[in-house]
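Action item from last meeting closed. Structure (208 res):
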């Protein structure tokens, strides 16, 4: 998340969005979040698994432990497991079903779209590109005008290109490159007007 929050990346992202909007009527908002849900139950589940494994080890190991030590060690293992579940994205992804992750990402994207007023542009071309880093998912939500103007296969290609950043080591650079590819598509299907109106801030911040 630090790389995506870095001022240099934010500056480059702002310039890229401005270029997209100068070459097309589309109004693009990019939101990058750490996660789409907290998944506290996953952390508790991991804590339970770690504590059960720890207790089982203490029960079968030859070394003798005082009863209170076995209790404290098992309790500590539970806490360590919860901590790991809270701070480790790979563990959270491992113990969270794919469908649940997809549902949470979609719910968050739709809520941000509504709260940010992206459906209030005069030509109905507000488009949200939402990136959820923990789930490693991209969700694109376009208003009616943009959705109808650009064929579904083009939207799918844009999503595929953006989704591919999670396979790259330099994710921020890959993200900017994927956005740049959108310029030709947006310009082709929703060409710029002589006096393009910028109805949505390029650095729109939306908090739920």
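Sequence:
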């Amino acid at each position: 998340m630090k790389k995506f929050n870095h001022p240099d990346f934010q500056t480059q992202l702002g310039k890229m969005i401005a270029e997209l909007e100068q070459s097309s009527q589309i109004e693009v908002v990019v939101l990058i979040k750490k996660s789409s849900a907290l998944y506290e139950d996953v952390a508790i589940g991991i804590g339970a698994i770690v504590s059960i494994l720890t207790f089982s080890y203490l029960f079968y190991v030859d070394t003798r432990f005082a009863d209170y030590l076995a209790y404290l060690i098992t309790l500590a293992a539970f806490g360590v497991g919860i901590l790991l579940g809270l701070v480790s994205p790979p563990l959270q992804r491992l113990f969270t079903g794919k469908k649940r992750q997809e549902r949470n990402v979609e719910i968050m994207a739709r809520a941000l779209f509504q709260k940010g007023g992206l459906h209030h542009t005069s030509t109905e071309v507000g488009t949200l590109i939402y990136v959820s880093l923990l789930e490693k998912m991209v969700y694109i939500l376009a208003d009616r005008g943009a959705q109808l103007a650009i064929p579904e296969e083009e939207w799918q290609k844009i999503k595929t290109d953006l989704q591919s950043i999670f396979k790259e080591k330099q994710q921020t650079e890959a993200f900017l490159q994927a956005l740049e590819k959108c310029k030709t598509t947006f310009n082709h299907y929703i060409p710029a007007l002589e006096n393009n109106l910028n109805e949505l801030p390029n650095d729109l911040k939306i908090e739920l």
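Note appended to the action item: The chain has two domains: 2-37+97-189, 40-94.
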